[in-house]
Design brief:
2 copies of one chain form a homodimer.
Chain A: H1 2-9, H2 20-33, E1 42-43, H3 45-51, H4 56-68, E2 72-75, E3 79-82, H5 87-111, H6 114-133, H7 136-153, H8 157-177, H9 185-200, H10 204-228
Antiparallel strand pairs in A: 1-3, 2-3
Helix pairs in contact in A: 2-4, 3-4, 5-7, 5-8, 5-9, 5-10, 6-7, 6-9, 9-10
Chain A binds a DNA duplex through residues 19-21, 44-46, 54-58, 60-61, 76-79.
DNA sequence: TTAGAAGGTTTTGTCGACAATATGGTCGCA
DNA sequence: TGCGACCATATTGTCGACAAAACCTTCTAA
């Protein structure tokens, strides 16, 4: 049930949009992450308000939220534009991600309930099956779900907020727009497995080390693709 | 010149307020951090707009920014209230801080220019002198300045943003409202000195270890005071 | 020809009013 | 007496218009 939502919208978290601003924000974010609104573009409030059939106030508030996610940059009296994707930016982003998700894995090894860990193992099994079928879209969703569960398992609200509200959409933006369908998916599975084992053993230090290494590999992989494409 | 600003407003960074929203946001943030607007209070948009002599739209946007800093929590159709300060929240906050500032110190050891490191040593010396005079207000400002320089020295925009825009005001809120005038100031000086030495030697690993330890000590100190006060 | 100023145009910032939702109190009923 | 529905009130969400700032074009002068 919950996974269906994940696959459908790729916004795995119960951020139920209640106001029109919420809906507009989520729609804009989706379009930016997926490149429908291209990187670097100036966001005109008037234009967007006619396009999305809402008032300028709604657009303004949505843009403010996008700025909080670091998906757009805003200058007073000038306007907002979608962030540029650069190799340096990718490195900076992954430096932060490595540190924070390493920490998340460490905390998760201590703070996840036995039930949550059991669920994580179930997820890993189902992930293993889809890996064998070779459906990259499902793999991507599975990967995101895996990381999200560990982040939530840290039980640290600040950490969760920084990662999920703050940098995960940007990570996905790099992935999608650089065309990372991922030759690394199958190898990443083994890394996931070892991380889950460490968490199951409540080995916090090892979980952190393995997670950092896992993300470091991912970064190297992305950098390779990035330089190859340039 | 720059330090005068720091001492005057305790907002050490060139966030020049240009719009009235900027000014209102900064004013509200200051009042929340310093407890003039008490923790847990509901923020009424109408009330604030009459109090600060600006329109509701300005207040709304300011509140949105406060939410981005995690200084208020907002619920759709209900409203925003100032965050509560709890022992658990403090621990979570410092877990994140330790990880991120440790990383900042590591990156700073690599990325700071020789000139910036020289400036940091100058700051340390002047800090040493003020420590001897025993002026806690200056000491606090000096401490903040020290940490800010290292954070900026990391040259990682995400890290800088998360720490300075995101969690530093909340840290200061805990400090101010728990009355941390700080018996730890003088001992902290030695820790600062060793961190600067590591950075001067371009020893990234050591800088991270020392910074993490420094922040861990600070956390323990605050937890002691917090439990003592309860 | 180019640099700079002036004015018109476009865009963002701010405002007050209306619509929709939540809150609080009262009444009725079991 | 206690619980739930209903209505009045208050608060937030959304909108369109006005004010102010940035931009673009054109014109002038060195």
């Amino acid at each position: 049930m919950r996974r269906i939502l994940i696959l459908a919208f790729m916004t795995p978290f119960d951020e139920q949009p209640v106001t029109t601003t919420d809906k507009t924000f989520i729609q804009l974010r989706k379009n930016i992450v997926e490149g429908v609104i291209p990187s670097g573009l100036k966001l005109s409030e008037m234009e967007l308000s006619t396009k999305y059939l809402v008032s300028r106030a709604v657009i303004r508030e949505a843009i403010n939220r996008l700025e909080s996610c670091h998906l757009v940059e805003r200058k007073a009296n000038i306007g907002a534009r979608v962030v540029a994707l650069t190799p340096d930016g990718l490195v900076e982003l992954y430096q932060v991600r490595e540190s924070l998700e390493g920490m998340a894995a460490r905390l998760a090894a201590t703070n996840m309930t036995d039930e949550e860990i059991a669920d994580l193992n179930v997820l890993l099994s189902s992930h293993f099956q889809t890996v064998q079928t070779g459906e990259t879209y499902y793999q991507e969703a599975g990967d995101v779900d895996f990381h999200y569960r560990i982040i939530l398992g840290s039980k640290n609200t600040h950490l969760i907020s920084i990662l999920i509200d703050g940098i995960y959409h940007l990570i996905r933006m790099y992935r999608v727009q650089l065309g990372m369908a991922g030759p690394r998916v199958t190898t990443a599975f083994d890394e996931h497995k070892h991380i889950v084992q460490a968490i199951s053993n409540r080995d916090a230090e090892l979980a952190e080390i393995l997670m950092r290494r896992h993300i470091s590999y991912t970064r190297q992989n992305m950098q390779n693709i990035l330089t190859r494409n340039l």
